[in-house]
Write a structure and sequence with these properties.
The complex is a heterotrimer.
Chain A lengths: L2 E4 L3 E4 H26 L5 H7 L5 H32 L4 H16 L2 H15 L8 H31 L2 H10 L3 H31 L11 H15 L3 H32 L11
Antiparallel strand pairs in A: 1-2
Helix pairs in contact in A: 3-4, 3-6, 3-9, 4-6, 5-6, 6-8, 7-8, 8-10, 9-10
Chain B lengths: L1 E10 L2 E11 L4 E5 L6 H8 L7 E6 L2 E2 L7 H7 E4 L11 H12 L4 H14 L15 H14 L4 E5 L7 H16 L3 E5 L3 H7 L2 E6 L2 E6 L1 H6 L4 H11 L1
Chain C lengths: L1 H12 L4 H25 L5 H7 L4 H37 L3 H22 L2 H15 L6 H28 L2 H9 L4 H32 L10 H11 L3 H30 L25
Classes of the chains: A mainly alpha, B alpha/beta, C mainly alpha.
Chain lengths: 282, 241, 297
Amino acid sequence: MTTARFGGHLRISRTFLLRVVFGSIGAGVALFLVYLAGVFGVYDLGYALYLLPPRGRALTTGLITTLGFMVVVMPLGFGLGFAFGWARTSRAWPARAVATTYVEFFRGMPPIVLIAFAFLITIVVFRGNDRIDIFALATGAGVMALAAHSGAYQAEIIRAGILSVPTGQIEAAEAVGMSRGTILARITLPQMFRISLPALGNEFASLIKDTSLLSTIGALDLTFQGKNLSAVLAVGGGNLDLVIIIWAEIAFLYFVITFVVSRALQAIERRFRVPGLEAAQL
Amino acid sequence: MITVRNLHKWFGELHVLKGVSLEVKKGEALVIIGPSGSGKSTLLRCINLLVQPDEGDVIIDGVKVNDPKIRPEWVRQQVGMVFQSFNLFTHLTALQNVMIGLTKVKRLPRPEAERIARFELDRVGLADKADAYPAQLSGGQQQRVAIARALALNPKAMLFDEPTSALDPEYIREVLDVMTKLAEEGMTMVVVTHEMGFAHNVADRVLFMAEGVVVEEGAPEEIFERPQKDRTKAFVGKILG
Amino acid sequence: MDARRTLEDLWDSLEDSPLHRTAIAILSLLAIAVVLIIVLANARLISLGFMADNASFLFVPALTSLAATMISFTVGILGAIPMGLVRSFGPRLLKQRGLRAAVAAPVYGSVTSYVEAIRGTPALVQIFLVAQVSGILFPGNPDIPFWGGVLALTLNTLGYQSEVFRAGFQSVNQNQIEAAKAIGMRPRQTFAYVTLPQGIRLITLPLVNEWVALFKASALLGVIAVPELNWAASYLGSTRSHPIEAFIMVSAVYLAIIIPLSKAVGYWERTHRIPGLGTPEPGRGRRAGVRRPVPAH
C-alpha cells in the first residue's frame, strides 16, 4: 500500500485521500448539475424548493409524522424483540415454543399484510362502537403489527447475540459465586449488546423504511403526503417532472433519516467497542 | 540460486523487513527460525512476489525478479510455495488441485497433466486419495496434496511457510518425512518452521531472524549448540528448554 | 410426568439434527395453527364455511403475486451479476493508475450511488414513483399497473441482489486466492477457476432470502391497483365482513410458500456448507455488513 508521508509524521493512505477527494468532487458536481438543470428549466426549481421542509407544509407534516412513528415503533419493536429473543433461549420449553411460533409467524408474513389486517380487523371488531376513536385505535393496531414484525427479526438477532456469549464465562462467573442476576447484568447483557449492535442497526434502518407502510392505512406520514400530492398530478396525464420532484424529495428525506440513524448507531457502536468482541462467525 | 539483497518492506507504519540479505545455493535446504512477528513469512512472500518488496533485490537463478518488467506469474512458476493453512482449493478434488496448475498455468494437455499429477500424488504417498475432496482428508494429507500441487509445476526451488504449524501432532511426522525426502533428492528449499528437530537434522544452514533483521546464520550445530549472539542464545534456550 | 419428559426431549432434539429440526419445526407450527383454527371455529368466532367458499377467490391473485416476483427476480439476477462484479472489483481498479481507473470511476460511482439509493429508500416510495411515471408515460394503458409494479420491483431487487453478488465474490477465502497466485495463475484465471465456483456456493442462501423478501414486497403492489394476493384478501375481508377469516387464508398462503422455502434452504446450507466458506448473511437478507448467518424469511 503506497502511503503519502507528510513531513514524516502524518501518514494517510493514498486510497483514502483519493476517495475523499473524488467523493466530494462527485457530490459537489452532482448537486451543481441538479441546480443547473433547475435554473435552465429542465424542471420546476421553484416548486421543488417550495415543497421542501420546513417551508412546504405537506412534507413537513409528513416528516414529523414519520419521525413520530419511528420514535414509537423502535422501542416497541426492541422491547418485543428482547423479550422474545430471550425467551427463545430459555430452558423452559413452553417459553421457547411460544417464542418460536411468534418469530416464525411474524417473520414469515409480509409486513404490509400484517398492518392491513390489524387495521381492518380492529375496524370491523369495533364497528358501531361510538365511545372510542376507532380510527386511532386501528392505526395503533397497525403500529403494533409493524412493531411485532420488526420485533421478530430483532428477537433472532438478540438470540444470536445471547448464544454468542461463551458459556465458559458464565461458568466462571458462577464459580466465583456471582448471583444469576449479577451474571445477567454484568456478563451476559454487556457482551450481547455489543455483539448484536451492528445487526440491530441494520434492522432499525429497515424499520424506518417500513414506517412508510403505515401510509396505506391512512397515517399522514411522508409517503402518504407523496401519494396525496401526486395523485392529482399523476392522473392528469402531464406533469411528469412534478411527480418526479415530489417522490425524489421524499426519497431523499427517507435516505437522510436512515443515514443519520445508521451513523448515530455506528458511532455508539464505536464508542462501546471492545477489541476482540465481534459478532460470531460460524 | 536464490539471493536476497538488502530487502525492506513496510506495512503502513510498520517496518517489517529491515534490510534482510540471504543466499541459498542450489540444492541447499535453508531453515529460518525466529519468534512470531519477526518477518519470516513476509520474507518468504517477497521471494515469490506475493508481497512486493519496497527496497532491495530478489535474484533467482541470476534473474532480478522484482524488476517491474518481469511478470510475477512467471516467477511463481519457478518457485513453489506451501502454506501453513494448506490453502487447497476446496471445490476441487486432490487430483484436480494438483492438475489445475498444469492445465491452466502451464497449458499442458489434460492427459499429460493427469499423468504428472498422479505421479506427484504418488510421490507424496497419496495416490489412492486422488478423488477425495480436501474436506475429506486429514490435515497431514491435505498438506501433502499441497506439496504435490507445488511440485507438479516442476519448480526450481520450494518455499515452505510453517507447513506443520496448523497440524495435529500425529500428522506432523508424515509431512516432515515428505520434506526430508525432497531435501535428500536435492530440492533447493527455504523453510520457515518451529520444528527444531527438522531444522537440526535436515537443514544445511539455519538462519535466525528477529524483528525484521537476520541476527545470525550458520550450520545447524553452530546455531543450536554454539549460538554467538545473545538474542539467538535466548531464543534457542527457550525453545530447547 | 413421562409425557412431559418426552415432549421436552422432542423439543430438545430440535437443537440437534438439522433434518429433524426442520421437519419438526414445520409440523409443530402446522399443528398449532390447526388447533387454533379448530378452537376458534368451535367458539363460533370464525367461519370455516366462509374460508372454504372463498378460497378460490384468492387463487388468481396469488399467481399474480408469484408471477410479479418471478419476473422481477430473474431479470434482477441478469443485471445484478455485472453490478456485483463492478462493486467488488471496482475499489481495486480504482487504485491502479491511468485509463483503467478513469473508466472505472464513473461506472463504479454510478452503480454504488444506485445501490445506496435503492437500499436507503422505502420500496413503497419506489413503487409509487415508478408506477406513476409509467402511468403518465403510457396513459390509459391497462397493463401499466402490473408492469409498472414489476419494473419497480426489478429495480428494487437489482439494488439488493448486486450486494449479494458483491459479497459472494469478495467472500471467497483470501487464502484460496493466495494459493492460486502462488501457482502462477493470472488474476483473470484466479477469478474464473477459484473465485467464481466458490462464489456461486456462497450466494445461494442470500439469493433465496432475497427472493422471499421480493415475494413479500410484491404485496405492496396492491396500492397501485394490481390485483395481487394481499389486495384480494383485504377486499374479501372488508367487503364480506369476515376479516379474520380472510387473514387466516392469506397467512396460510404466504406462510405455506415462505416458511418451507426458508427452512429448506437453511437445511441445505447447514448440510452442504464448505468449512471456511462462511456466508455473511444479514437479518432480513437485505443489508450487508452483518456477520452472522441468520436464515431469514
